[in-house]
Design goal:
alpha+beta, L-fuculose-1-phosphate Aldolase, 2 domains, 11 helices, elongated
């Protein structure tokens, strides 16, 4: 079999985690990624019928039974993934009863998947119900988005409208808008359930005073969604204290949406004139 460390999905995870750390989005062991893989992809590199070990899970993921994911490890630093993927990443398969996972590769130091795996699985489940091409859940601590949650109304409509107005591409990249949760304790099922509920309608959920949960059909799409929101938040944070002389209007946002064939989230823009 081929060396799994040369697999595109392992290399892409290594590059992505290194880039996110470089951007300052994943300090220390902050942040986590789960990426659903096709079985045929994995079979080129691993014997999926010979798991390394079984890891019990306090969550019913039976909806995802048999699905294979590559996932960052709990307590692991994104900056170390690229040099030591076998300890910082794991390839796992959800057991048929949904109550445990089989480790197929990785976590060689005895580690486990991110502690927020149930939250990831909840979001995967809801996104797959509305988008069969969905594959990635990405969580990080984007600096400007987090800062924005301290000074901006957390109403989803108002939060989204502010971001849409920051640069033209925002309406192109996330016409479906942004969901926002108030501060909640991280690392437990409550915030996971609240996030998953939002994922029924949104691809990205902001956690006030914490970070972002973003999704997509691949790593680039999930990253690009988060990256665009973070850029818009950075622009907002640079000008929020200044007098605004002009901005993108709702009517201009309608023009952008029409030009790119997008449908803005209903009720988030003022009606067309």
């Amino acid at each position: 079999m081929k060396d799994v460390k040369t697999a595109p999905f392992v290399r892409d995870m290594c590059k992505m985690t290194a880039n996110m750390y470089r951007l300052g989005w994943d300090e220390r062991n902050g942040g986590n990624i789960s990426f659903m893989l096709e079985e045929d992809q994995v079979k080129e590199y691993l014997d999926i019928d010979r798991p390394v070990r079984n890891i019990p899970m306090d969550f019913d993921a039976s909806f995802l039974a048999g699905k294979i994911f590559i996932v960052t490890g709990t307590g692991k630093y994104f900056k170390n993934v690229i040099d030591d993927p076998e300890n910082n990443l794991g390839i796992i398969r959800v057991a048929q009863d949904g109550k445990s996972i089989d480790l197929l590769w990785g976590y060689e130091d005895g580690g486990r998947p991110t502690s927020e795996l149930p939250a990831h699985f909840m979001s995967h489940i809801e996104r797959l119900k509305v988008d069969p091409d969905h594959r990635v859940v990405m969580h990080c601590h984007c600096t400007n988005v987090v800062a924005m949650t301290f000074i901006h109304d957390l109403d989803e409509r108002e939060f989204t409208r502010t971001l849409w107005r920051m640069c033209t591409e925002c309406m192109v990249v996330f016409p479906d808008g942004i969901s926002v949760l108030p501060w909640m304790l991280c690392g437990n099922d409550e915030i996971g359930r609240a996030t998953a509920e939002k994922m029924k309608e949104f691809r990205l959920v902001v956690w006030a005073a914490h970070g972002i949960f973003g999704t997509g059909k691949d790593l680039d799409e999930a990253f690009g969604l988060i990256e665009t929101v973070e850029k818009a938040a950075e622009l907002y944070m640079k000008i929020a204290h200044l007098p605004i002389k002009q901005s993108i209007t709702d009517q201009q946002l309608w023009i952008v949406a029409d030009a790119f064939g997008n449908t803005p989230r209903e009720g988030f823009l003022e009606p067309r004139q």
